[in-house]
Specification:
This protein is an alpha+beta fold.
């Protein structure tokens, strides 16, 4: 959990630095306007105040996200990892398939498999085409996730690329929601595109 917290601090660094700069400037401006003769000391006080404000904000953001990520991971029976703080979350699966298997067949198999998973639950299917599948999970939560799955076949090899990210695209942290969805769905996707030696889909 500490590794995730540290990763969350790094992810929120840009935002907290900007806040610290704004707060420092505002505080220094107020102090200097009250007494222009002590501008150097006012500037130092403003800078220190901004640094403290930025540090408090960084700790608050990281702690809140770590708590949410811990709950999200526990909901799916997953251990919380530092990579849960990264966005977008991606994975790639390469498996042998019988010759002639089309991406559409595999996409249909994946969608059927994911619809049977009790959690995370698919709330909306945004795209379902030849080798492309996009679904939204957790629409009722504070951190809904969009999962995009792309499938291509080359002779007897299928390559599945998974990409999970917040529906709210500007977010730099989502409390581990995207990672939890991707990690929980990945084994089901892997199984859905695998075939036995006799060419039978094992899902």
């Amino acid at each position: 959990m500490l590794s995730y917290w540290l990763a969350a601090v790094r992810r929120s660094a840009v935002s907290t630095v900007l806040v610290a700069v704004v707060v420092s400037g505002a505080m220094a401006g107020v102090l200097i306007s009250e007494d222009t003769s002590t501008w150097a000391g006012s500037l130092l006080q403003g800078t220190l105040f901004g640094l403290v404000a930025g540090a408090i904000l960084a700790v608050a953001i990281a702690t809140s996200n770590t708590w949410n990520a811990r709950r999200a991971a526990a909901r799916h029976g997953l251990p919380l990892m530092a990579e849960a703080a990264s966005l977008p979350c991606t994975a790639e699966i390469r498996v042998p398939v019988p010759a002639g298997t089309t991406p559409y067949q595999l996409t249909d198999s994946v969608l059927c498999a994911l619809k049977k998973v009790p959690a995370p639950r698919i709330d909306e299917v945004e795209e379902f085409t030849h080798g492309k599948l996009t679904v939204v999970c957790g629409s009722s939560s504070a951190n809904p996730v969009r999962l995009h799955i792309s499938i291509v076949t080359d002779r007897n090899i299928a390559t599945v690329t998974m990409d999970a990210r917040p529906v709210t695209t500007w977010k730099r942290l989502d409390g581990g929601a995207s990672w939890s969805v991707l990690t929980a769905f990945e084994p089901h996707v892997s199984k859905a595109v695998q075939y036995d030696t006799d060419g039978t889909n094992i899902s």
